[in-house]
Amino acid sequence: MSGSKPDILWAPHHVDRFVVCDSELSLYHIESAVSSELKAGSLRLSEETTATLLSINSDTPYMKCVAWYPKYDPECLLAVGQANGRVVLTSLGQDHNSKSKELIGKEFVPKHARQCNTLAWNPLDSNWLAAGLDKHRADFSVLIWDISSKYTPESAVATEKVRLSAGDTEAGLVVTKPLYELGQNDACLSLCWLPRDQKLLLAGMHRNLAIFDLRNTSQKMFVNTKAVQGVTVDPYFHDRVASFYEGQVAIWDLRKFEKPVLTLTEQPKPLTKVTWCPTRTGLLATLTRDSNIIRLYDMQHTPTPIGDETEPTIIERSVQPCDNYIASFAWHPTSQNRMVVVTPNRTMSDFTVFERISLAWSPVTSLMWACGRHLYECTEEGKASSLEKDIATKMRLRALSRYGLDTEQVWRNHLLLTGNKGSLVYAGIKSIVKSSLGTTESLRHRRSGSDRQADIIQYLSEERSLALQLCGWIKKGMDLDVEPFLNSLEQEGDWERAAAVALFNLDIRRAIQILNKGASSGKGDLNLNVVAMALSGYTDEKNSLWREMCSTLRLQLNNPYLCAMFAFLTSESGSYDGVLYENKVAVRDRVAFACKFLSDAQLNRFIEKLTNELKDAGNLEGILLTGLTKDGVDLMESYVDRTGDVQTASYCMLQGSPSDVLKDERVQYWIENYRNLLDAWRFWHKRAEFDIHRSKLDPSSKPLAQVFVSCNFCGKSISYSCSAIPHQGRGFSQYGVSGSPTKSKVTSCPGCRKPLPRCALCLINMGTPVSSCPGVSKSDEKVDLSKDKKLAQFNNWFTWCHNCRHGGHAGHMLSWFRDHTECPVSACSCKCMQLDTTGNLIPAETIQP
Amino acid sequence: MFVARPIAADHRDLIHDVSFDFHGRRMATCSSDQSVKVWDKSENGDWRCTASWKTHSGSVWRVTWAHPEFGQVLASCSFDRTAVVWEEIVGESNDKLRGQSHWVKRTTLVDSRTSVTDVKFAPKHMGLMLATCSADGVVRIYEAPDVMNLSQWSLQHEISCKLSCSCISWNPSSSRAHSPMIAVGSDDNSPNILAKVQIYEYNENTRKYAKAETLMTVTDPVHDIAFAPNLGRSFHILAVATKDVRIFTLKPVRKELTSSGGLTKFEIQIVAQFDNHNSQVWRVSWNITGTVLASSGDDGCVRLWKANYMDNWKCTGILKGNGSPVNGSSQQGVFNASLGSANTSLQNSLNGSAKHTF
Fold it and tell me: Do A672 and B174 touch (CB under 8 A)?
């Protein structure tokens, strides 16, 4: 600790004080300060804490080691070991009460001057202070001083003392006779008292570790080792000791002291400090020279008794409390895993070592983690914009809002094409267009609004107009009239798109009209007028200024539709890349455009190319092209790969052809995954609705009946609807329930006319309608009976416990188990209601608002 | 915005694992105090401990739930070299009156000669199966042939991984196109450069698990590994917690290209690599859709990662282990890694070693 390398110590009892020692002792007070501004004279140690300097003590030069007095009182009493082997008691406290006065300034002087390497207060008898010294011939190197002793110095030593520190001549403060002298003819590098017994001292001597027993000083237990530095006892397991040598830490078990129980992986640089964490079991912190990392060894189990040879589980971790090299560190005595580190230039930082955090996501987007002994639940709160929301949250919300069950978008194919072309029911534009090869007629048109000669070739065929219908430009049955579509776009305020569609239908006047309307409408963009003006200046001349300006300026237009409009006007007939590859224009508009203006060969090539592009990108707009075919499944696969949105995929593909698409393994897998998701969220009602929806579109997915109920007497099924299905030999469900709620008047088996079992509560044969439940208030029954007739019939069904096989009317059973856990049948102690934990879970939809 | 709130856990020592059941209504925690606790979520969202019992004679490393169709079943593994299967018993004791549930030991799996470091139930469609891994480098796969009898488990497979195992993860995909698959991570920290993540696949023909892939680039100790919930994807996503967070994708090469019956070939890509924790990463966990990854590291922070549509992964949230938010401006030292640098490190990794195929 010579000048350059500061050391740091926490006060053992004042949890907010620590001392930094290099050439002088500086006492700091630490306090929490969350606010960003610093008080005058305080240093920031971390985001939450600052330190203020309380006092400085420079009375003791040549400091080699410092040890804090372990008792609460007197305040801030420290023992300082000096380069000459003297140990001085000094204080940093402000209050000088009588007790500390006696002690402060006391010096303990060895016979021969040599460096004091280490100091250790006895934790049980705080009057005992052990000092470890360098070797001096045959002299003792471990001296134990009694700080309460009042020996006067011998004259010989007094002269020496005067020579060394001339200022202090006060008699009575210098002690030269130690209580015990140990370690003759040896050097002592480190010391620690063993908590097992007041009189046991562990010392790291030159080339061995020794345990001195003060009850019998002639005996010592020792083991030869190089790891003699920094001996320290685990505060949680008093038999476990760590020491180090160069870059290696050795862990010892005092019960089998012959060799280290383990050595930790060697570090490249020599170690400077090794300390057990006082607030946590089995955590050892180590520091090497010139390093900004504190390496932690987490020994995650109690040391096993002797003889049990298990490999220890040690987790090695490293923390980096600051960017600079660390000179020293000190654990906080009580605050969990907290330490203060100090750098060579005396900057300090307050730091907490976090425990390894283990974490788990719950199915409902909350995250739970365990840090140390504490649990934290983390939930997403506040309104995140829909873009930021994760697909898991989105799907949950969509499922709650009946996503997929209402939308008509996906079956537009269906509606448009039924009866028209059977083979194309599920097809997309791609196959429609393919089938149109050769049937196309071309029409030459003149761009209206111009008088010059420039023919634009338009193509027409039945399939092409079908494609236009699918794109939404024209309606079924009507001629190629886009007016309704334009009107609806105008109503939505989608002016640019409406203008573009009008223009693509070669009605430049209508386009200008739309733009003007847009500019004059409330929220309209005035720039639209400018665009309209530019549009009206349209000329066919190849080399006109207008054309030149348009083709350069159009790239600066922000709106893709406006951009596409000018691209169309400035392009040569037959090459419309500026429109077709304007990626921000909706796919259906581009496809519709292509269907109007591209020749068969071009169109096919374009559609093919676009399809593949959209497929690779997983862009759902591409469904328009692929339809719900194998191609569509490929596209959807790429969409699912990117988004994980199996919900959309499932609903979408359900509309596909049962024989082809629905049998696809991938589609089945998406549906299975989506159902599983709904189950995990306890959206059981939604899952059931999905299943119903699914079985309408894919009858093969309908599950078979799960339970058959047979009569006690004749063994025949008592259900009417299922009577056609063979069911004999299912002896395990003897007591009966009718799966069909349709007949409620029959109290006998349809096969043998014997009566059905009785309800355990009303004692009337099953099959009779339920009389209103006794003792149930109206509020409980609000849904069950009055509102819906179907629900009322549910009360007539009968249910039974799988365990005790007692049962009765569902309504009666429900009302019974509202207040009871045991079976209603006398002498049956079956806890029917608690048998199934999942059964007690409530579907999540009923809780959600 | 993620907000964390503390729950009084009342464990007497470090908690090593947290695990949710299928519905997220129940939770299990295990600790160095040798016990397991089961928590139930009340209707108002509070967690209540409904069972706490001593499970092992050593630190309990991991706890995991079986799918509820097999009943209320837990498995735990411990330093005491065993893994244990637990089942909740209802209606047979007075525990319910005290609001406590009763768990009984169904079986103890004692095949390991060293600490059992991880235990995981196989995906539901494979039946009731359980995999364990141990510090001596053996992965064991057990099966309960009769799902109604949880006291009988037979050791079906023993895979020797040669390296001390720290974690396992089943591939959750239930697609028939994907064979059962298990990834194993090793925390072996001896100074060798062996790959620390191995992937084993079940071969229908030999009825054995065989090594399908090794992630050659992962040479540092691996602390956790997690396959993302598959959710209909045609490929698999694997997160690895080592000295940084890494996300791999495993794309099965189409069957028709590979010889039939053999092992699936995979095209493996590293899609993200983040060293924002600035230190060892301890755990990774996927959300239910496999779209958000949470990781925890030695910097005491929990970070959330999410990919955008272009498959660029980014940090979308940081919280400190004690639940307090990390404020970006006054960060110092280890907390220096900001949101922005996530992207750059990804870019670096992509420019550097990424996009290689094994």
Answer: yes
Taking the alpha carbons of A177, A183, A184, A186 in that order, is the dihedral positive or negative? negative
Contacts of A838 in chain B (CB under 8 A): 23, 68
Q: Extract the tokens encoding A439.
A: 């049937």
Which of A528-540 are b and which e, b meaning 16 or more Cβ less than 10 Å from the residue's Cβ?
bbebbebbeebee
- Give the strands of the sheet with A200-205, arranged side by side: A188-193, A200-205, A208-213, A220-224
Whether residue A450 is predicted with pLDDT greater than 60 in this model: the reply is no
What DSSP character marks residue A232? Answer: E
ipTM of the complex model? 0.88
Radius of gyration of chain A (CA): 45
E strands in A372-430: 374-380
CA distance B335 to chain A (A): 10
Report the C-alpha dihedral over residues B62, B63, B67, B73, rounded to 10 degrees. 140
Q: Which residues contact A302 (CB under 8 A, 6 or more apart)?
A: A237, A281, A282
| Both structure tokens of A291 | 């390093």
CA distance A293 to chain B (A): 11
Statement: residue A806 has pLDDT above 80:
yes
Q: How confident is the model at residue B329 (pLDDT cuts 50, 70, 90)?
A: very low
Residues 6+ away with beta carbon under 8 Å from A569: A503, A535, A538, A550
pLDDT score, position B168 = 96
Confidence (pLDDT) at B356:
37
Contact A356 B296 (CB under 8 A): yes
Residue A265 makes CB contacts below 8 A (sequence gap 6+) with A316, B189
Query: pLDDT, tens digit, for every residue of A322-351?
Result: 888 899 999 998 888 888 999 888 888 888
Instruction: Report the residue from A318, A372, A390 with minimal CB separation from B279.
Output: A318
Provide the 8-state DSSP code for A837: T
Highest mean pLDDT among A86-100, A338-352, A475-489, A654-668: A338-352
pTM for the complete prediction? 0.80
**What sign for the dihedral angle of Cα A819, A825, A831, A832?**
negative
The 8-class DSSP code of residue A411 comes to G
Q: Could you say which of B79, B234, B300 has the minimum Cβ distance to residue A354?
A: B300
What's the rounded mean pLDDT across residues B15-23?
Answer: 94
Tokens in use for A412?
A: 């537009």
Q: From CA A756, how far away is CA A748, in angstroms rounded?
A: 5
Q: How close does chain A come to B16, measured CA to CA in Å?
A: 6
DSSP string computed for A162-180: HHH-TT---TTSEE---SE
Interface contact flag, B302 A357, Cβ < 8 Å: yes
Which structure tokens are listed for B57?
A: 């004679």
